[in-house]
Design goal:
By secondary structure, the chain is mostly helical. Helix content is 66%, strand content 3%. Helix 2 runs antiparallel to helix 12 (204-227), helix 5 packs antiparallel against helix 19 and helix 13 (254-269) packs parallel to helix 19 (377-406). The radius of gyration is 23 Å and the shape is globular.
């Protein structure tokens, strides 16, 4: 359902300095036309979060489960949840070229969103046919992640020209909440569809076809919404700092922060990609799809519920203290899976994991926003995404070698989980080395890009939600048909 800004926000629109300027045709546009176009843009941006989150909850979340259903094995299922992220992180680097080549942020974003929607077509076909090679599945997953990540920086730059500075924090906070609800809906719908197919072996893969069709249609809807938004300045630059900016390594403690985060990621990814095959694979717990969905939803919900309290904690005691709490809390998480196979115990572990990872993500975002100048954030986070993807791939490769060497059974997984816990514990000295700093920056809005059984979800910050973002909607007009014309 489209989002209609409440009356108070509507009044705020008319207070913005962007209204009432002189356009290219030399005449002043009616304020009502400008407000109507702005309301339409905000409704489209808001609804796009819903469509994209439905895709995440019903699509990528179940890729590892699909690998198992095709009989590709536990290691392939773990690899498809990790290695394609590296391909996506590399592909995102072509975004600046793509924007320049197409002469528009919107054209580039809509193209990438359309290609991401199309990436579900071969998955639907494979589910209908009943077969797909491991290499083919990895290639499709890489296309999915690559096209998704290629939209990130360009979309952040573009949407910063659509949402007025004074409205950003409130608008993107509401948009983030709507996206979280939609992701949960996608998760629940996916679990229900797979449960229905699970009842009859002949319908098992058909359920995956329905699931991926739902995800592809949601992303196609998202691409349509993106295509119908305004673009005040097709080639607006984010004015990234070059020589006079503060590089991340020059900020006190920032190199140590990045070193800790990347080292922790390696330790985490030794086990994280293999939780899905451990839960669903015939050689381990062999849970039903409904129970698998409940475990993912439990960590996601606990993270959402805990975030307001964690934000208050960060404001009062500083983001680094929250990061230290999270760093200690995530250490035993994989080892806890070795103590009981009782489902209620596993749910309790997931609830605790959601809080721990919520604290980690919140503190990480706060520290990035405190330490990095607004005009540098896109560049720094882009390169951090690449380094982070390399750490994910390295950890997952180590985990795959351990499983190959010790067997894909309870004993092999138990060793894997203990080693992951030990790797996380080894990063604690780096965490203790971080200097204290106040957490004064408000928590950023985020978009969920993946849901994981071991982490609740993977979030990316919406850079355009910050009032200090260097992108601002320039003065512009709406003609009588409501189309913006830049000055």
């Amino acid at each position: 359902m489209p989002f209609h800004p409440p009356a108070r926000m509507a009044r705020d629109f008319d207070d913005e300095p962007l209204f009432g300027g002189i356009g290219a045709r030399g005449r002043r546009a009616p304020l009502g036309s400008q407000a109507a176009v702005l309301r339409r843009d905000l409704a489209l941006v808001h609804t796009d979060a819903i469509a994209g989150s439905i895709m995440v909850g019903s699509g990528e979340t179940y890729l590892a489960a699909f690998a198992l259903a095709l009989g590709l094995g536990d290691i392939v299922a773990g690899t498809v949840a990790s290695l394609p992220l590296l391909g996506g992180a590399v592909l995102q680097l072509v975004s600046p070229w793509g924007v320049r080549r197409f002469g528009s942020h919107r054209r580039w974003v809509v193209l990438c969103a359309g290609l991401q929607a199309a990436s579900f077509v071969p998955l639907v076909a494979a589910a209908l046919v009943g077969s797909l090679s491991a290499l083919g599945l990895l290639a499709i997953a890489t296309l999915y992640w690559g096209t998704g990540m290629m939209t990130g920086a360009a979309w952040n730059t573009w949407v910063g020209t659509l949402v007025p500075r004074s409205l950003r924090s409130r608008f993107f906070a509401r948009r983030s909440r709507a996206g979280q609800i939609a992701l949960l809906f996608g998760l629940l719908a996916g679990g229900a569809i797979l449960h229905a197919g699970e009842q009859e072996s002949s319908s098992h893969l058909l359920a995956f076809a329905a699931l991926f069709a739902m995800a592809g249609l949601a992303r196609a809807w998202s691409a349509w919404l993106l295509a119908h938004q305004s673009e005040p300045d097709p080639l607006v630059e984010s004015r990234l700092a070059t020589r006079d900016g503060v590089a991340p390594g020059r900020v006190p403690g920032n190199r140590r922060l990045l070193g800790y985060l990347l080292a922790l990621q390696v330790g985490v990814q030794v086990a994280a990609p293999y939780f899905t095959p451990y839960m669903l694979g015939a050689s381990a717990l062999h849970l039903s799809y409904v129970r698998y969905m409940v475990l993912i939803a439990a960590s996601f919900l606990s993270k959402i519920v805990a975030l307001p309290w964690l934000g208050h904690l960060a404001a009062r005691h500083g983001a680094r203290r929250v990061l230290r709490f999270a760093g200690v809390a995530v250490v035993p998480l994989p080892a806890l899976w070795n103590f009981s196979n009782d489902f209620s115990v596993l749910v309790a572990i997931q609830l605790f994991a959601g809080v721990a990872w919520g604290a980690h993500e919140l503190a990480t975002f706060l520290l990035f926003f405190d330490a990095i100048r607004p005009e540098e954030r896109t560049r720094v986070l882009t390169w951090y995404n690449l380094a982070n993807a390399l750490a994910i791939a390295l950890g997952a490769a180590l985990g795959a070698q351990l499983l190959r060497g010790h067997g894909v059974d309870f004993a092999g997984y138990a060793l894997l989980f203990w080693i992951s816990a030990a790797g996380r514990a080894a990063t604690l000295p780096l965490l203790a080395w971080l200097p204290d700093a106040p957490g004064t920056t408000p928590p950023p809005a985020t978009d969920s890009v993946a849901a994981r059984p071991s982490a609740g979800s993977i979030e990316q910050p919406v850079l355009a939600d910050r009032p200090d973002s260097p992108i601002e909607r320039p003065p512009q007009l709406a003609d009588s048909e409501g189309v913006f014309t830049a000055e």
